[in-house]
Structure prediction request, 1179 residues.
Amino acid sequence: MVQRERFAVKKKPKDTKGTLIRIAKYLSDYLWIVILLVVLSFLSNLGNLMGPRFAGKAIGIAEEGFRKGVGMVDMDTVIHYALLMALFYVGSNILNFLVRIWMTRVGRRVARNMRRDVFHKLQRMPVSYFDRKQAGDIISRVSYDVDVVSTSLSTDVIQIIVSSVTVVGSFVMMVVISPPLVLCMLFTIPASIFFTRYMAKKTRPLYAKRSAAYGSMNGFAEEMFTGQKTILAYANEDTITERFSAINREAAESYRNADSMGMRMGPTIGMINNIGLAAIGMGGAVLYLLNIVGLGQISSFVLYSRKFSGPINEISNIVNEIFSALAAAERVFQLLDEPEETADLPEARPLADCRGQVEVRDVSFGYTKEKTVLHDLSLEAKPGQTVAIVGHTGAGKTTIINLLMRFYEVQQGQILVDGKEYRQYTLDSLRRNYAMVLQDTWLFRGTIFDNIAYGKENASTEEVVAAAKAARIHNYIMRLPQGYNTVISEDGGNISKGQKQLLTIARAMLYNTNMLILDEATSNVDTNTERQVQTAIRSLMQGKTSFVIAHRLSTVQNADKILVVDHGDVVEQGTHAELMAQKGFYYRLYASQFE
Amino acid sequence: MKLIFRYLGRYKKWVALAIFVKLMATLMELSLPYIFEHILDYVVPAGDLKMVLLWGLLMFAAAVLTRNTNVKANAMAVNNAHRVSYDVRQELFRKTVNLSGSQFDAFGLPSLISRMTSDSYNVQSAAQQLQTLCVRAPIMLVGGVFVSMTMDAPLAMIMVVMLPLLLGIILFVSSKGMPMFVTVQEKLDAVVRIMRENITGMRVVKALSKSDFEKRRFAQANEEMADRDIAAATVMAIPGPFMQLCLNMGLALVVIIGARRVNEGLMKPGVILAFLTYFNMITMGVMGVNRIFMSLSKAGASADRIDAVIRTSTDQKILPPEEALQPSGDEFIRFEHVDFSYGESGGDSAGFLGESREKALSDISFAIRKGESLGIIGPTGCGKTTIINLLMRFYDAGAGGVFVDGRDVRSYDKDELRRKFGAAFQNDMVFQDSLRENIVFGRAVAEDRLRRAVEDAMAAEFVDSLPEGLDYEAAIKGANLSGGQKQRILVARALAADPEILVLDDSSSALDYKTDAAMRRAIGENHPESTVILIAQRVSSVMHMTKILVLDDGKCIGYGTHEELLESCPAYRETYEVQMGAIA
Prediction:
């Protein structure tokens, strides 16, 4: 409850109808259960509504006897009604319990299905989406937003059914008991509705402000804690704490403003109900004197009027919850509606027995329309050749890799693999023909063994160990208490960058393909280890078409072809010796190492 | 929990007032059914319309008064809670940014962040509820029982008998349910973790066509979480309907026994109705106690987590001069036989090796004069950054002495020591702010010095290419800047205040050789007074330094000038030859 309130973004969803329909679609998987639950909760409510009627009857009989004198109460009838009352109540409570449990189940299952759909969706999304979006945002949709929807489904749906049945039912009962008495308290309905709407209008912006203030406070704290060392280094603690104070004050005040306003709601609705009660008392007195109603009738009428006003009190809360659930669902659906990776062409075939002949023809590309990163780039790699790509930071080296792997779509020009336009191959098979080691190493929580064997299902222990040995990481692994079974914490928390990179090199070693991409594969490894790994990498590159990006020019000297890229253009092309002889861009780049 | 009372205690008078007002409001609320019962039992049968009107108006007035008192009490409680939450968060923030390196490690960044966000929120809610719900619910409970006792004691016994049963159920379910929710949270963490892994590693997943594998991995975690969640929610769904059940059985008993007592002439029929109302009220009280239990046990855990941070006493005392070590030389920066291991203080649980940590540094000594420079080179994880951590006193050395300007670093006032530095760390932060603010970083830096820092850091070209120039707003963690751009802004920050000591920890790794060299040249020419400590992977970056320290596995394996090391340190020579390729 507390958690929900905290994030509840009180803003109106944009496409309420569409969102409702999509939620209904998720519910339709459990259609029969939901229908059953609706029926059960209806029955449970009817049972609950019958209770006061019997209580009223019993009290009426007691009152009748009371007027006749001591010992004149018809106890048998009283007990008869009281037992009926208990029976209906108990049945209603048991049904209510069942409904709650099952509705919770449905809610959690729907949440599970939503999470599954989001995850599957992510797998179909182009890489560009992940380059653009913050992981935190996607994750908050999966954890927090889905949770809001699920909680709302488990409680609010039932609540609405219960409330509407109760309101209508008790109103009917009140009319049955005494129409004139209904007139006495009728004013409470418009008063409650009017007040609820008035309050909603007033509090919603305050709550929105509160969420925003908390959001920015949390963001600030997270950023500052992450950069704590820097703050200490510049002796900036006091300044930052003071800046936090302003943000903190704003958050505290927005909380005060929103909640002290929000907490007027309960007492006020309570007051309206109590005034209604007073009116019933006065009206009832008049009617009693005119002999139109008896005390027993007034009693059960009062019980129903309580049942009647209870849900109205709750509805304001529910409405807020439903709005925030709809907004949350909308955020989930928004993600599900993102454009997906381009589908394979209908005539696409799997790329089998790849020779590793790659040709890039006049390719131009930009991440945004305004700025082209590559201009008319052409290159050719024959099977087994090593092509090195060098150039300054931001020259477009990694972009070439993004295109080769088809993480991004070529906007102009063509890329051919084994002589065929590469869109003629299925995306999966094209990518499976590349092994790659990237600068950003990626490991998942799991054993070292599983991380190395990731690319090759059912890899044997021998294969994994051989790959680790080739990547010069075997000795390190054996020094760990659990060896290959050591679990790597999320994102490889406790291993150094260099060791992570060696693990990913081992992973690539195990993944036998004809094409290889090394994007700054050894940038985090020290020179000594690098030299040792180089031998392994060289044997890895044997017979494969390899694309190598490296800062250290020493690592690319042996390439068959070196491509010098500057501002998206290939400015020079040739072997190390040729390029050195040209005394051009590459020569200057090379010489700058020694300045 | 103590934390909440401690901070509420600061506003003792206000809290007492809020509780008092809430008490009044609740008592008035309790009196309303009493009035109504009176009307039904005495006023109506008497048949005096005037009296009916009078009592009706009285009830009307009481209702309005109750509402106003309640609103007032709530507003006061919220107001107190807002002060408490401000104080707690402020203290927590201040403490957190002042934690020493080893204390920070012991808590861990994600945990510190969640203490600041969700835990402080729970504390705020509890501070408010302690003044409202915690007053109202028990009063409803006790008051309801008390009033009904005075109305008709035997009838009230029904409730008195039932109450322990209800409270027992609450205790039982919450003691069973809470651990279940902890498990749900753990399972959710697993779901989120796999999701995060996939988001950050999507290139690898796609490149290796592991989508199906990942889907299976996710499905398993997802399924487990849903199961646990359903189990926990099922247990938690018990108290509500169960209490309703007990209440309803009680109501039936009230009707039967009440009618019998009416029959015996011991009470009036209106009492039965009033009883039904009080019964409702008491159940509300029990439900309220239930809620208090749930939310306070959560808040209690949160409060303890915050208190753990706030109560951390500083582990880095400033030594009086007589306790501080004396350097045995007069160089500007001296390390004398320094040993250090991480995780010695503050209960280290982060180590996944489960064994005691190896020494990060052992027996490190060096000395450089003002205006000289020191290059530190060595394999990944060999302890290069640790030297900076000790020099700037993020951590304290285990043995040996660290001296700056002839004084033990532990004898400096913290700010006094760190003001001497300008530092750009590995993985340093660009904050969400303008580039200008990122470079100035809370110090007084004149415009021309700022400009010079930008130029010396080789950042001028890219800053000038931005339409907003230095007023360009960096996104959170500098997400809208490239790695090389970030590093240049960080170096500009380090240079901006013309520091006595300039620390550059691997802060040109994303720059190409040419820019890197130009940056070093500019720093050398324009900041001749600054003592420079530079950590790098490339020999070319450190070869021109006055002294070079070669580290391996926390030990010094070479110390001297470039030429000396080429002679004396085989590892250094090898690295040099490999990196320089054929030309050297």
The mean pLDDT of chain B is 85. The radius of gyration of chain B is 35 Å. Chain B touches chain A through 182 residues (CB under 8 Å). Strands of chain B lie at 333-340, 361-368, 373-377, 399-404, 407-408, 421-424, 501-505, 531-536, 547-552, 555-560.
